[in-house]
Amino acid sequence: MGIFKLYKNTFKNGIHPPENKDITQGLPIRQFPFSPILIIPMSQHIGSPAEIIVREGQEVERGQILAKASSYVSVPIHSPVSGTVRKISMVPTISGNKIEGIQLEAFPYSGQEVAEGKPIRLETATADEILKGIQDCGIVGLGGAAFPTHIKLKVPDGKTCEYLIINGIECEPYLTTDHRVMLEQAEDIFMGIRYLMKATGAIQTVIGIEANKQDAADHLNKLKPNDIPVTIQVVPVKYPQGSEKMLITAVLGKEVPSGGLPIDVNVVTVNVATTAEIGRLLPHGRGIQERVITIAGPAIKKPGNYLIPVGTPLRFVLDYVGIQDDIAEVYMGGPMMGVSVSNLDISITKGTSGILVFGNKDVKKEEKVYPCIKCGACVDACPISLNPSKLGILAKFESYDRMVENFNLMDCFECGSCSYVCPSHIPLVQYFRLSKARYKRRKSLKQNLNNA
Amino acid sequence: MRKITLHIATSPHVVKGASTETIMKNVIYALLPAAAFGVYAFGISALLVLLTTTISAVAIEHFLCKISKKESTVSDYSAAITGLLLGMCLPPDFPLWMAFMGSAISIGLGKFIFGGLGYNVFNPALVGRAFLQATFPVAITTWYQAFGPDRFYHISSSVLALPFMQPAVDGVSGATPLSAFKFDHVDTQTYDLAMGFINGSIGETGTVFLILGGIYLAWRKMLNWRIPVSIFITVFVFSGAAYLINNTAYPSPFFTLFSGGLMLGAIYMATDMVASPITSMGVWVYGAIIGILVVMIRLWGGLPEGVMYAILLANAISPHIDNLIRPRVYGTTNKLKLS
Fold it and tell me: What is the CATH classification number for the domain harbouring A279?
């Protein structure tokens, strides 16, 4: 670990894309109006889709459960608005596939009251009851991955959780939701930490915040309660520090083993907005119905941080905030890892952390792809010290086995730093996504052949 | 509702904006001051040699692309660099037809048959230089006096030698500091070496300009500064040790550092991104190997100069350096996986 000292308080390599956060970071979270029609897909999380328990024509209250968790790796979905279930059908999603979903017609004068479920009392609840409560509230990771939080928090038998790390890094350019949540929802965050520490048995909590959000760090430090062991650690700005593994290295100097999980180094990490949501919802047994989203990008007329009901169609969102005439690309998420949108009829889900709109002049130009000149920029950028140049060449030859076995392809978490720096404009991270998928498919085909 | 057309792109949706073409262009910008100094020191003949190698390298690459029915790759500027570098490591009065042959070998055998930019194993300019050294040993070691009074209006007759003819000697021939030391044991002042008041190849005497250009490229992150630094350190230490042991037989480490093509080679040729290792750790080893080879060839070899062969040999082993020296992947133990 000798060399590690050099990188203390951050991780090795990484990149510094322009932050572009100054436009929205000063804008308080504002409530978004209800769209007349909401479209709610049943798979807003990683795992099995939720199972619909309402029927067409049924009137539902805001906060009522529309669909229940279908398995352990699943969460229920709550109604974001009072209204009528107009249709249960296939609805479009960002991936291009259509999946089962609910079309909800909002009552024109829907109130803000929210139906409450069974409250989880911090003082009396056991760890398992808190986890169950988190699942019942439909909570998933709000940082973007949308992995059901209760599974992440479950400490497996034989392992212990020492540190709870709250992820307030928000390293994606443009996005400022976590920043605003930290400034405006400090009480909820600390309440959430109490629940999380009880659920995981963590001894110490660290909130990791990048230096460009010093005001948020100061604010949390000021309001820090005395009854829980919380420290706030400010780390230098660098992408992809918000990635779970990089954050753990930055804060604790530990490395999560290849193929392992944070709990292997006695750590559990939770996004700061997720923590706030837990602290706000659990005491009332409410479900998630809305989330904070940064709407930004050069082609947006009214950028800002908005509290938007889940299921709001993207078209409604963009009409409300106003877009320039020459929009070219729309992304959900940040510019580094976000996904391009092909269709404005898709809707906001629990995992949507940002909506970015770029005009024709703002999108990256279709530059000529040159051969790899082995300049090593990608090697110096890769946060986990892979050799993207070599991997890119192997991907061209479809040597997926070698990529995985000799060059640790499966450790790549697709942060896109290699593509960002490549002077030859080789779409490296896209090669790696495809290679991983094809490797897995080949492997399963082989297994099927062996079994047959 | 108005119609909106959305493009689909894969992430990341922002890029740094560096480009291979920009890197190549900047390498040329960095080389130009030293080349200009060469023209100033050696006159119009040197200019003709540089123009011949550069233009012919570009033309030959264009021609090879056309006959193999590929899109021409001259717009990436890499052929121009190869041509310019080749010219800069030739003597100022080198016959133009030989220079043209050098360009053809550089581009054809050094680069194109490997698959063009990005695939060459050796620095293409040095492949051409090695060919010329083997084929025209006299012409490539004939040095005319720098700063000749009539250098700007008199074209040396050897430059214009007809194809397949050996040049006739007409000027005042001189020795380079390296050959003077090797064969006659004449030492040159380090100040003269650094300031370029010496004979030598067109682009190797403008030491100050070569270093300034290198600093510019390193500052723009278009050159891996570790390579020249590693070479300089190794050369200095190794030749310094030899000098301490026997200071009459061996030159001082400053002489070794500033003489011959070491600056040109270490800063601009050893750093050929394609032919050098990709990891930061690997390039330290690569630079050290070049440094040791340069000193060994210079001190004990039959030739006064060793930079070219040192770099070519190190180019050959650089893929193996990449294979052997790899940074430890995050979350893994340091185990070597050869492939």
Answer: 3.40.50.11540
C-beta of residue B287 within 8 angstroms of C-beta of residue B226 = yes
Identity at A159, one-letter amino acid code: K
- Name the one residue in this structure whose structure tokens are 């006159």: B43
In the predicted structure, residue A27 carries a pLDDT above the cut 90: yes
B339 domain-assigned:
no
Mutate to test the interface with B, among A10, A245, A379, A400 (most CBs of B within 10 A): A379
In a domain, B211, yes or no: yes
Q: What is the pTM of this model?
A: 0.89
What are the CA-CA distances from residue A193 to residues A164, A176, A268, A276 (Å)?
A: 8, 21, 12, 8
The DSSP element (H or E) to which A81 belongs, if any, is: none
B17-22 — which CB contacts under 8 Å span 24+ positions?
B18/A377, B18/A421, B18/A423, B19/A367, B19/A370, B19/A423, B19/A424, B19/A425, B20/A370, B20/A373, B20/A375, B20/A423, B20/A424, B20/B76, B20/B117, B21/A370, B21/B75, B21/B76, B21/B77, B22/A423
Q: What is the CATH number of the domain that holds B89?
A: 1.10.3430
Sheet order of strands, A77-78 included: A51-52, A65-68, A77-78
Contacts of A376 in chain B (CB under 8 A): 224, 273, 278-280
* Chain B residues closer than 8 Å to A380 by CB: 280
* CA–CA dist B37, A374 (Å, integer): 31
- Any A CB within 8 A of B153 CB: no
Contact A371 B22 (CB under 8 A): no
Q: What is the Cα–Cα distance from B316 to A219, expressed in whole angstroms?
A: 58
Please check whether residue B90 lies inside any domain of the structure. yes
Q: Do the domain assignments include residue B337?
A: no
C-beta atoms of B330 and A258 within 8 A: yes
> What six digits make up the tokens of B321?
């350096």
Q: What percent of chain B has pLDDT over 90?
A: 53
Condensed to tens digits (0 to 9), the pLDDT of residues B288-315 reads 999 999 999 998 888 878 899 999 999 9
Categorise residue A214: left if φ over 0, alpha if ψ from -120 to 50, beta otherwise: alpha
Say yes or no: A255 and A309 in one domain: no
